[in-house]
Amino acid sequence: MTILSERRISTRPITIIPEHERSNIWEHKTSKSYNVNDRVTATQALEDCGLNFPVELIPKSGHSSVTGTRVDLPDQYMIVGHYQNEPVYYGDVTDRYTLLEATDLALLLENCSKQFPVVSAGSDKKGKIIYFVLYAGTSEVAGEQIENHFIISDRRDGKGRLSFRFLPVRRACTNGLLFGLSGRGFNLHMTHTSSLLPSVHTFTQEAVPNMLAQQTSTLAILNKFAQCKITPDQANGIFERAYPYKKLTASSNVGTDAFQSEVLANRAYDSTQLTHLESRQLEFQNNQQQERERQNKKRDYVQKLYNDYNQSFQTRNLDNTCWSAINAVTELQDHRQSGDSRNNAIFSPERVQPKTNAFDACRDLLVTV
C-alpha cells in the first residue's frame, strides 16, 4: 500500500471554489435548466429541448459481389437518430432490441414529473443519450441542506440502458455526492429487450414510492458516513480505491513471467527480435509509470481537499469522517477536472467511477469501524 505521507505533497493551500462560481454536474452546453417553481413536466422539457426527434431501426445491408445487388442482412439493424434534421448513426443491434422513443418515455414520466418537476433536460453525443433531471425537494445530512434529484437517462446505442438514478447534491458546494455506474440499491437499470416497455410502465406507475424509498435509504447511508470516524490509513485506503492504478489488460503479457521467458528464449539468436521485445517492455513500463504518476497526483490532490474539509468540519465534529472523505473525492471529480467539453460529465466513467469507488469504500468501513 502506498502511504500518502511517503509521497511528496505540495504544501500550497487549496481554496474551495465559491458557490456562485460552480455549476451542477449535469449542466452542459447541450442541456437546458428550469426553475423548480415553473413546474416543468417531462413532455414540456422534451419539446423545449428539441429532444422529440425520431429514432428508428434501419435494416443493415451490403453490396454483393456475386449478384451485384444490395442484400439485406437478416436480423441486423442500425439505430439512427434524426438529430437536428440530420441522420446520426448510434449503433448496431439485432431484432431482439426494443427501441424506446423519447416521446414515449416522456409520456411515461409525465405524472411523476408533476410531483418531481424537471429542472434540467438535455442530450449527449448528438442525442445518443437523453436525460431528465427531476427535483425531489430537500433533506438534511450532517446538519447540511441536501437537494434531492432523480436522473432518468436512456442510452440508445445498443449497449447502454435506461437508468433511474438518485443524485443528492450538497447545496453548500454543489457536490453531486454519488452517481453510480452499476447496479446499487439507489439505482435501477433496464435493458432494451422485449420486457423494457412493461418494466418501464410498471416502474413509472409506482415511481413516486420507489423514488422516495431510494432517497430515504441513500440519505440514511450518508448520515452514517457523517458519524463514521476514520484513521489516516483508512482515509488513504478510500482514496486508493477511488483512484486505483490501471491493471494490465488480459490480452497483454508484457511484463509477465511468460514475457520474460520469451525475451530469454530469443536472447541467444535474434538480437533484432530481442530489441523489439525489450522495446515493448520499456514502453509498457513507461506507460505504467505514467499511470501511477497520474493516479498519485489525484490521490495527493484529494488528500489536500480532505484536509481542508476536515478543518472546516472540525467545529461540528465531522472531521476525519467518511463524510469528509466522500466530499473530498466529489469536490475533485465535480469541480477540479477539466474533462472533455464535448461530452456531459455525468455520463463520463472517468468522472463518475471514482465517486462510486469511494462510496463503496466508505460503505465497507461502516461494517468494520
Question: What descriptive keywords fit this protein?
Answer:
369 residues, 41% helix, alpha+beta, disordered N terminus, seven-stranded antiparallel β-sheet, flat, three-stranded antiparallel β-sheet
Question: What does it look like?
Answer:
The protein has 369 residues and is of the alpha+beta class. It contains nine helices and ten strands. Strands 1, 5, 6, 7, 8, 9 and 10 form a seven-stranded antiparallel β-sheet that branches. It has a three-stranded antiparallel β-sheet with strand order 2-3-4, with no helix packed on it. Helix 5 runs antiparallel to helix 9, helix 7 crosses helix 8 and helix 8 packs antiparallel against helix 9. The protein is flat and about 75 Å long.
How are the SSEs ordered, and which strands pair?
Elements: E1 31-33, H1 42-48, E2 55-63, E3 70-83, E4 86-94, H2 102-115, E5 118-124, E6 129-141, E7 144-155, E8 162-170, E9 175-176, E10 187-190, H3 196-205, H4 207-227, H5 232-242, H6 257-267, H7 271-313, H8 322-335, H9 349-368
Antiparallel strand pairs: 1-5, 2-3, 3-4, 5-6, 6-7, 7-8, 8-9, 8-10
